[in-house]
Amino acid sequence: QVQLVESGGGLVQAGGSLRLSCTASGRTFSTRAMGWFRQAPGKEREFVAVINWSGVTTDYTDSVKGRFSISRDNAKNAVYLQMNSLKPEDTAVYYCAVAITTTTYDYWGQGTQVIVSS
């Protein structure tokens, strides 16, 4: 059974940092791109960042460019999201996911809450 488990969320003041982790079990995803998404209260889930299978190529939504950094460790079957200079508008539940294509994801974690206070 495949499981993705996120951790590292919490409450932080604006300007602070958090590092989210997502560890997969049940199968290896070293040949698949992995991404981070978020969903704020009352809003639709949105794309945050994606990293290709080797970790060489990354992409971000415009609102987090220069502040967030996605990385992965295939030996640990894990993907990370370093979030710096956090803003209250970054408050959301953050999910990791495994990509089938550039726009389709099949496995999802249960999410980790990030709250940024002003």
Written overview of the protein:
- The chain is mostly beta strands.
- The protein is built from no helices and eleven strands.
- The chain has strands at residues 3-7, 10-13, 18-25, 34-39, 46-51, 58-60, 68-73, 78-83, 92-99, 105-108, 112-117.
- Strands 2, 4, 5, 6, 9, 10 and 11 form a seven-stranded mixed β-sheet that branches. A four-stranded antiparallel β-sheet has the order 1-3-8-7, with no helix packed on it.
Question: Would you kindly provide a brief summary of this structure?
Answer:
With 118 residues, the protein is mainly β. The protein contains no helices and eleven strands. Helix content is 0%, strand content 53%.
Largest sheet: 7 strands, mixed
Number of beta strands: 11
Mean pLDDT value: 96
What integer value in Å does the Rg equal?
Answer: 13 Å
Q: What amount of the residues lies in strands? A: over 45%
SSE pattern: EEEEEEEEEEE
The number of helical segments is 0
- Give unreliable regions as ranges: none
Q: What structural category characterises the helix and strand content?
A: mainly beta
Overall geometry: globular
Distance between the termini: 40 Å
Approximately how much helix is present in the residues?
A: under 10%
